[in-house]
Amino acid sequence: MAAPRKELDSGYYLQHFNELLQFVAAHYQGVLTADSQTLLRDFTVLSEAAQQLLVRMLNRKGTVFADTELSYSEIGPPEPVLDELSQAGFIAPLTEPDLAGFWLRLSKDTLWQLLQLAKAELANAEQTHTAQADISSIKKSQTKPQLLGAALKLPVNWLALIARLPQRYVALQRQDALNYIYFLYFGRIEANLALFTLRDLGIRQTGQFKQQFTPRFTQAVQAQLAYQLAKAKPAIIELGKQLKKQPDNATALLNQWLNAVAQWPLPDDNALLLKRSDRCYQLGKLAEQYKLNDIAIAFYQQSNGFPASERLARLYAQTGDEQRCQQYLQQLLDDPSCDEEWLFAEDFYRRKFADDSSGSKPGHKRRSQLTQLLHDAPLVGVDELYLGKAEQGLMAHYAAQGYTVFHAENNLWLALFGLWFWHELFEHSGSALHNPFERRPRNLAAGGFYQQFATDIEQKLTQLAAPTAATILLSALTAHYGKANSLFYWHSDLAEQLLPLLQHAPQVQGVSSLVPILRAMAQDFSRHSSGYPDLFLLKDNQLEFIEVKAPGDKIQRHQLARLLALNNAGFNARIEKLHWIVDPNRLYVVLDVETTGGKAGTDRVIEIGAVKVQAGEVLATFSTLLNPGRYIPSFITRLTGINSAMVADAPSFADIAGKLAEFLQGAVFVAHNAKFDYGFIRAEFARLEQPFDMPQLCTVVNMRRYYPGLASYSLGKLCEEFDIKLTHHHRALDDATATVELLKLINARRCTPQLAIK
């Protein structure tokens, strides 16, 4: 039985706010702005009722409020409390900039009230005939957006009219000082304190890592630049929206931003430098979008490293400055900021400026290194039933050859990194977790983690080749399993994947090939934490890594960088391209279910019929009625002939689940409208907390595809069209047996080369 949910007392929101303020005052006194310090002092002298009401407002959406929506039993009448907040400067009457928030908050009834005041105002004044016509055409039956659109066209003083409403409207003040306090605590501009509430309700885990926290900033200049950059992120998004509406203003608005960016100091802190570079890069992309190449170049020059360096080189080439482009590419090749930057520069330089020694025909475009790598990758034939599930198809291909295959991608490497350096990441007194809610060290992205713990990291890297390495890893895994973190996710097969990776990784002169991979992650986590190959294969203690590419897929530069890094470290890592084939010896199970209704989540299976087929021959059948544990509706009985008495002594799904799973093993799931039947079987296994995942073939979809133009694709009509025997329609085994004949018709055309997928 689930534990009862905790109840929070009525003052929980004020307790949370005070907890945050006390934390900030204790850890960030040296970096608080004058406005933030004043806000902290002024808040402490407010009455408890005023504190409660202010925090209530802060935790709600928007900055504009009516007194009628601020009635709380623990606070009492809002008017005197609002007066106190106004005198302390925390709220104020509305001004022109507050109108946007006011319109968003307005109910339709209040909007109509306001329009009536505007109508009277216009009638008393000498207004144009057009204004009188505009107000007279407004009807109460119109929608709120229609009323609001009409209101905004009227030539009236809205602030004066709002003051005449029976409600009192106020706007929150001192938002910048408050947001700075939030920023110091969370490391981002957090609009509310939901994390505290989730913690107190027992939903959000805290306290699983270290308990003493160091400030994320110790210098005021550093903290205030970080805050500026944090505010710039949403502001740039809003700029993009504004430019879509006002493209003619792009030059003026982007030049304003260029002037603002020039005032941002170049920080010594790598994390801030990365954020500054990212903001400049985003602004450069906006400038390019509006064909303002000179402004884009200026933004990219303010950025630092990749990917801005790629855009800069391409713009130099695009604007005809070949010499500058060549010099810049050479500079990137001589001193790249990361692997991806070097790969871009090498590839772009070779295609733009290097002599063509490849022997390609004149006029033929040189392939990029990425395209060439994909072109040269070996082809592997995988049954077209895995369309849309390329990784799953290749996993089945190698499993059939005796490999142990895991779908690993990034999590394999992130989990190894996280577990091997768990203490430094999460438990060391100096780890970069700055409040109880953080689950990922803040200094990972910019290399600060390695700089801080270089000696410990290098010592631990040497242990990767030690005989005790597996024991160390297992100890970390068992000690920390399930602890919520933002580096990797836990799953039941993690040890099964990590131990062979650790034990069978190649060694070069006694050093594990894992060393350069984990060192690179520690030094530049943001660049080396993604792009790892899809599959991890193990056979005869040999490891292989495969990046899977289905027809039409492209290789990304960071994926190429990870493949090269793994190969340089001594691993066997490669790309494999899939091409779709039809296996004539594929094993199929054609299945049909009868159910108590149409919803797999709530209805139950009452009959299963299944036929195992290979190369057109029936190998075995499976058929059973099932007791659904509920009454069978009369309309189902009329449709199928199955009633509650017939299934009273039948087994439950749990009774036959093992036999059915065995019958389905290694086959393709085939059904007429496979989504329905597959969904019910999967739901039944899910009720037993058992996974269910099979490749599927739908005979409805494939009959439409290979036999187009028929009047109907229902099972009954198709059986009539192709003279297929169907004696007891809507009984599971009979329907499944008829569907076998449809499968034969489909495969007759699927297996014809000119009709099969290329």
From TrEMBL:
Its EC number is 2.7.7.7. GO terms for biological process: DNA replication proofreading. The keyword Nuclease applies. Keywords: Exonuclease, Hydrolase, Nuclease. GO terms for cellular component: cytosol. Coiled coil: none annotated. SMART domains: EXOIII, VRR_NUC. One of its GO terms (molecular function) is DNA-directed DNA polymerase activity. Its cofactor is Mg(2+). It catalyses: DNA(n) + a 2'-deoxyribonucleoside 5'-triphosphate = DNA(n+1) + diphosphate. Residues 587-752 form the Exonuclease domain. Residues 489-580 form the VRR-NUC domain. It is an enzyme of class 2 (transferase). DNA polymerase III contains a core (composed of alpha, epsilon and theta chains) that associates with a tau subunit. This core dimerizes to form the POLIII' complex. PolIII' associates with the gamma complex (composed of gamma, delta, delta', psi and chi chains) and with the beta chain to form the complete DNA polymerase III complex. DNA polymerase III is a complex, multichain enzyme responsible for most of the replicative synthesis in bacteria. The epsilon subunit contain the editing function and is a proofreading 3'-5' exonuclease. This is DNA-directed DNA polymerase. It comes from Rheinheimera pacifica.
